[in-house]
Each structure stands twice: as structure tokens, then as C-alpha cells.
């Protein structure tokens, strides 16, 4: 039987979503999560591969806007909701969907595609490079001290219900987006994702709580977290589970962390995804007892190399020719002259001699400035063709602060 790829008709969403759930093991998500997934699905940008009257594979795109080095916010298609029925795996269903999706992204004029991967091994072959990492931590607050920046004592903290605090949190979040590459401007509906809190997934923890930081009556930060109480013969050993924390200034940031450190009856703070250069690491007395661990967070693929490289700024002046290889999206192949500085960049086709040769995957990895071209060259994944080109490009591409995406999608 031949398989057919079709755009998702909204009336087939339940069946389509059912295929996705099966691909992920068959555990039904909470009603709350399902409703959110339904609301966020852009059906006209979602596809299914049909085998007769059954759906064998699913994939979707979200019309995101991504913060890039220099503070611009750029259209980026978020590739998502990928699943192939276990009965149909390793027969090219994903490859077929990926072909269609990257062609669609190109046709839509989005210079970039981005994703968060269930497994890092899957997407490199399609030109996605790991562009941002995140750091998790398990902080032993009984042993680790915290010193807070000046001004933290003047910050007022106010507990609110997460729903009640949402608007204020979103206003802070919106200001943080352009401050750090890798963050996504909120699309309508996405503000509900950090509030998802299905009771049967709490594993003994409290419902989600929210505390706002305020200075001079204005909200300057927030933390959303839960507490999992725990007791043994020695007493309390509760865990603070941090969902998200954002602040607009060091004093508010420090005050929120101090609040977490000081929560009674707890001795551990667990954070999921935090930036790799998150400043709390420089407030603690013993980083080793914080068990910081890195993982891959955001994968980037340049879909239009010229537009993508022209959309960001560069830490140092750069003027060099890149020779790009891209078998999966061959329209990107060839030589590109990149010129740029802190104000922005331009990137045009050229026939001049190249300084660097690299693949789309490596360009995606380096794009947000979190993975250095020199390190990729050290791994043999970038070749220097003109002496000095690597050092010039590597320094220019790097970003301070490091890129980060606070959530998966
Ligand atoms: C962005 C996101 O949504 S991430 C979520 C991805 N989904 C999941 O992880 C759910 C569980 N897994 C699945 O549904 C499927 O196994 C998928 C989607 C990962 C792969 O779908 P398939 O149709 O089997 O992939 P397909 O047959 O097109 O394989 C394409 C290539 O990827 C490779 N590949 C596919 N899955 C994997 C994997 N999990 N690990 C390593 N390689 C893989 C194949 O070997 C093939 O390699 P080739 O280029 O050398 O030929």
C-alpha cells in the first residue's frame, strides 16, 4: 500500500494526535495538556502521512519568532509533534515529512528552522545543529551558601496564584526575550505552557506556586516553583522544584534565589533548564555541591543561509567567505560573503575564494553564538581554508550572554 502525505484537516486532529501519543509510548497526556496541544497546533502547517485510512506519521510547524545575537527577533519555524507509528518506523516516513517541512519553511520565507529533540541523534542528518545548551542543577541548600547582590533587601516579594500573576510574569518575560538569543517571543496561547500543572504528574509536589519580585511598585521578576515535602528520622528534607525564574535586574534576581534557598523544611533546590551562564552559579559558596549538568536544548537549521546570517549581529567585525555544504537543502550550497559587526550583518552570494568550509549543521550550531566554530573545527567539522579565518569567524559568532531556550516544544 502506498503512503500519502497530506496537510492536517482539523477534523482529523484527534486521530493525528493519537498517532503522536503512540509514537511516544502510548501514555495519554492530561486533559489540560491535550487541550493546550490542540489549541497550539497550527493545522495548516501540520502534516500526516497516511497509510490507507490510518495515520502513520505526524509532524507540525509552529510560526515562532526567535531572538538572535544582537537582539533582533527573526521568523523561525518550530519543527514539532513528530511521531511515526512503531509499525512504520525506519521506512523513511520521517525523511519524507522532513523534506516537505523544510520546503514549506523555505516557501514561507522563514530563514531558520528550530527544534527541541527527543533524541539528539535524529536531526543532524537533516542539517540541524545543537545551538543552545541548558544547565540543570540539584543544589544542596543545607551546605551551600548564597550571597545576594546589593539592593536585594529592598526587593519586595509577593506570593500570588500563578493565574493571577500571569500577566505580570509575561511582561517580564517579554523584556527578557531580546536580552538572550534562543528565546522565543510568546505567540498567543504559549503563555499557558509554563502554567501546565496536572495533579497526577506532580509526584507528591505541591501545586505550582508563584512569587513576584517588586521594586518601587513595579514587578521586576518572578519565580514559579513547587515544593515536594519529605521527612525521615532526621527531620525534614523537602525539595524545591523550580519551573522558571526571570528577573530584570540583579537585586530582584538575587532576592528570588534567596527566597528559594530560605524556604523552610527544604534542603534541595532542583532546577530543570537554566542558561549555562545563569548568574546564580556565581552567588553560591560551593558550586560542586550544586551538581550542575549540561544538556542539549535547542537545535537550529539555517533554511536560507543568506537571510539567516544577515539577520544577526556579530560580536566583532567580520568579513569572510564561507563555503557551505548542504546536501538536504542544496539551495544553500556554495559561497557566501558574510560581513558584519555589532550593528548587524549582510550575506550575499560570491565567487571569491572561501576562508572557511562548513556544513549547514555546523552553521546552525554556531548560529546563536553558543557553540564556537573553533571547537567545531577542533572536531574536524569546520575546515579553515585561509589562515586567520577561523579565529576571526569564531570570535565574531560568539554571543555573550549564551543562548538559551527556557522550554521545549
Ligand atoms: C522535533 C520533535 O518532535 S522530536 C520527537 C521525535 N519523535 C520521537 O522521538 C517519537 C518516537 N520515535 C519516532 O516516532 C520515530 O522513530 C522517529 C520520528 C524518531 C523516526 O521516524 P522514522 O520514520 O523511523 O525515520 P526514517 O525512517 O525516516 O529515518 C530517517 C533517518 O533517521 C534515522 N533515525 C530515525 N530515528 C532515529 C533514532 N531514534 N535514532 C537514530 N537514528 C534515527 C534512520 O536510521 C534514518 O537514517 P538514514 O538517514 O541513515 O537512512
TrEMBL record:
N-acetyltransferase domain segment(s): 3-149
NAD listed as a keyword: no
Cross-referenced PROSITE patterns: GNAT
Chain sites annotated for binding acetyl-CoA: 82-84, 90-95, 118-119
Subunit structure: Homohexamer; trimer of dimers.
Family: Belongs to the acetyltransferase Eis family.
Full protein name: GNAT family N-acetyltransferase
Amino acid at each position: 500500500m502506498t503512503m500519502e502525505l497530506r496537510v492536517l484537516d482539523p477534523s482529523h486532529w484527534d486521530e493525528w494526535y493519537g498517532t503522536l501519543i503512540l509514537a511516544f509510548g502510548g501514555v495519554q497526556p492530561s486533559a489540560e495538556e491535550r487541550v493546550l496541544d490542540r489549541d497550539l497546533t497550527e493545522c495548516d502547517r501540520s502534516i500526516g502521512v497516511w497509510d490507507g485510512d490510518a495515520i502513520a506519521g505526524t509532524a507540525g510547524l509552529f510560526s515562532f519568532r526567535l531572538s538572535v545575537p544582537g537582539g533582533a527577533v527573526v521568523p523561525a519555524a518550530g519543527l514539532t509533534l513528530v511521531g511515526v507509528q512503531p509499525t512504520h518506523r525506519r521506512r523513511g516516513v520521517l525523511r519524507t515529512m522532513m523534506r516537505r517541512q523544510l520546503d514549506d519553511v523555505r516557501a514561507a520565507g522563514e530563514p531558520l528552522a528550530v527544534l527541541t529533540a527527543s533524541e539528539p541523534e535524529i536531526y543532524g542528518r537533516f542539517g540541524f545543529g545543537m545551538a543552545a545548551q541548558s544547565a540543570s542543577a540539584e543544589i544542596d541548600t543545607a551546605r551551600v551558601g548564597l550571597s545576594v547582590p546589593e539592593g536585594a533587601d529592598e526587593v519586595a516579594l509577593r506570593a500570588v496564584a500563578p493565574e493571577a500573576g500571569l500577566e505580570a510574569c509575561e511582561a517580564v518575560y517579554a523584556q527578557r526575550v531580546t536580552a538572550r538569543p534562543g528565546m522565543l517571543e510568546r505567540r498567543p496561547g504559549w503563555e499557558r505552557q509554563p502554567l501546565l500543572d496536572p495533579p497526577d504528574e506532580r509526584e507528591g509536589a505541591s501545586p505550582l506556586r508563584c512569587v513576584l519580585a517588586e521594586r518601587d511598585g513595579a514587578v521586576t521578576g518572578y519565580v514559579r516553583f513547587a515544593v515536594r515535602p519529605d521527612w525521615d528520622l532526621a527531620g525534614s528534607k523537602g525539595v524545591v522544584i523550580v519551573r522558571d525564574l526571570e528577573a530584570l535586574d540583579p537585586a530582584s534576581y538575587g532576592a528570588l534565589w534567596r527566597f528559594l534557598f530560605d524556604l523552610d523544611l527544604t534542603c534541595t533546590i532542583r532546577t530543570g533548564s537554566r542558561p549555562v551562564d545563569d548568574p546564580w552559579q556565581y552567588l553560591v559558596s560551593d558550586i560542586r555541591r550544586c551538581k550542575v549538568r549540561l544538556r542539549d536544548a535547542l537545535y537550529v537549521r539555517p533554511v536560507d543561509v543568506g537571510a539567516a546570517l544577515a539577520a544577526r549581529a556579530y560580536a566583532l567585525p567580520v568579513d569572510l567567505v564561507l563555503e557551505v555544504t548542504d546536501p538536504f537543502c542544496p539551495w544553500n550550497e556554495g559561497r557566501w560573503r558574510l560581513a558584519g559587526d555589532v550593528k548587524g550583518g549582510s550575506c550575499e552570494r560570491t565567487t571569491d575564494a572561501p576562508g572557511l568550509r562548513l556544513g549547514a549543521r555546523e552553521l546552525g550550531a554556531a548560529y546563536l553564538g553558543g557553540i564556537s566554530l573553533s571547537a567545531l573545527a577542533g572536531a574536524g567539522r569546520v575546515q579553515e581554508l585561509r589562515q586567520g579565518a577561523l579565529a576571526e569567524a569564531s570570535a565574531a559568532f560568539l554571543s555573550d550572554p549564551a543562548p538559551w531556550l527556557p522550554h521545549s516544544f
